[in-house]
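Appendix B. One record, verbatim.
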Amino acid sequence: MSQTATPLHAPDAAPAPRSALKGQLGTYLGLAAVLIGMIALFGSLSDYFLTRETFVTIANEIPALAVMAVGMTFVLIIAGIDLSVGSVLALSAAATAAAILQWQWSVPAAAALGLATGLLCGAVTGAVSVAWRLPSFIVSLGMLEAVRGGAYLVTDSRTQYVGDAISGLAAPWIGGISVAFLLAVVLVIIGQAVLTRTVFGRQVVGIGTNEEAMRLAGIDPRPIRIIVFALTGLLAGLAGLMQSARLEAADPNAGVGIELQVIAAVVIGGTSLMGGRGSVITTFFGVLIIAVLEAGLAQIGASEPSKRIITGAVIVVAVIIDTLRQRRADRRGH
């Protein structure tokens, strides 16, 4: 079992039952074992995988994925989904680049615009889904296209080169590790604390577990849902800044298909697609597994079709495992 928040009405964080703690530890150890096993496998297949350069490269490439996965964890816990995060990443980066290059804004103001763009996109997705009681899958699918179109309009369908204006986020700091990676780790820790140690986190889990019970308890789930999607958009905006800093450019095609990687990382980490259960820490394990898998396949010379087939198979296996785990939990509940 992944770590979840304490019961909804508990005024303070209650001690987790011993069985729950064992389940959490088992999840962590299981994911760590998978990660170590993959590292050992690729290390045996490639002479260059087990090197400092490889791991530094992986660390500096995953911040955008990790940050978006934090938001997606909360979305899946409320039994929603957001397919627009890749497009929001592109539009936020495009807005930042346009502010710097075309409008001559200062870098902090331009970065704030990029973050606000992501926040607005997420809030619109959540508000439309809640107001018309539409599946978030459909709403975010529409947003995926609309926001991508916005990115093309802002950039005139061309890559905007911002140079080193915001490159500080991707600059090597400690042992070659970028500031963006350290920021992503901090956000993972904050996300886990919010999920497990705050009233908001308990409400998020409550919505995913039994939304009707939340209403009967006098808690309106609608604003909570909107906040979750808005925060996810904000984190996608931050991911756009991170990617632009690494590439020193804003590409309107950036983030195409990354929403699938984000969802895969969250599901591999044990967050339930059915809602009500998840952990940001285990999501980070999922991000690392996805990153190591891609880096390892690239180093052993796997073709692009092969990499997609293998990654897709890993996602399907993770979903099957989640479904079986949910069925066992339901049987125990009965």
